[in-house]
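Quick one:
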Amino acid sequence: MRLRNKPWAIKLVNEHPESVLQNPDPEKKIDWAARFGNDHPIEIEVGSGKGHFITTLAEKHPEKNYVALELQTTAAGIILRTKLEKGLDNLQILRGDAANIDLFFAENTTDVIYLNFSDPWPKTRHKKRRLTYKSFLAKYKQVLKTDGQIQFKTDNAGLFAYSVQSMNNFGMHFDFVSVDLHHEKPEILEKNIETEYEHKFAAKGNPIYALWANFLSE
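Output:
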C-alpha cells in the first residue's frame, strides 16, 4: 500500500544520512560493516512498510544487524522515527528497489530475508513483479549465505500457492510451511512477530500463510 507523503518524514530522512541510505550507487556494493560499526549477522526485510516488524526484531536482538529495504520515503521516515525513539543502532534503512537487492549486498553476506505481506500482483501479466518470482529468488540466492533462509508471510492464498510452486520449481527446501500460522504450536508462535497488516488481517479471522525456505538441497 502506498502511503501518503508526509513532509515531516521526508525531512527527517534527509536529516539522517547516517541511518538512511538513499539511492546508493549500483556500481558499488555497500559497506554494511562500516555503516553498522561491526560485522554482526545481517537480516533484511524487503518492503518494511511502517516498520513495526523490523524495529521489534531489532529491539529483541541487539546482537544482530537489520536492514529495512523500503522504496517509499514516507515509510522510511516512519521507520526512522521509531529507530531514533528506541535507539536502535543495529537498524539501518535502505531506500531502494528490491529488484536491485543483489547490487546493495555482496554475495553470501545475509542470514535471513523476510518477505512480509508483499503486494500479490494478482494479474498473470504482472507475475514478474511478485517478490517470489524466479528472478527475485535468483537474487536472494546470491545475497544469502549458504545456510541462509527466506521467511515469507501473507494473507493472500493465491500468492502463497504461487510462492510455494515458484520456490519448489527453483529447487528450494522448505523448513516450515503453514496455512494457518496463528494456530501453530506455541514454540512457533513464540518466534512470530506480527506486522501491522498481519494484526489487522488476523483480527478479522483471516488465516495467515507462512513458510521458511532455503536453497540447500536435501
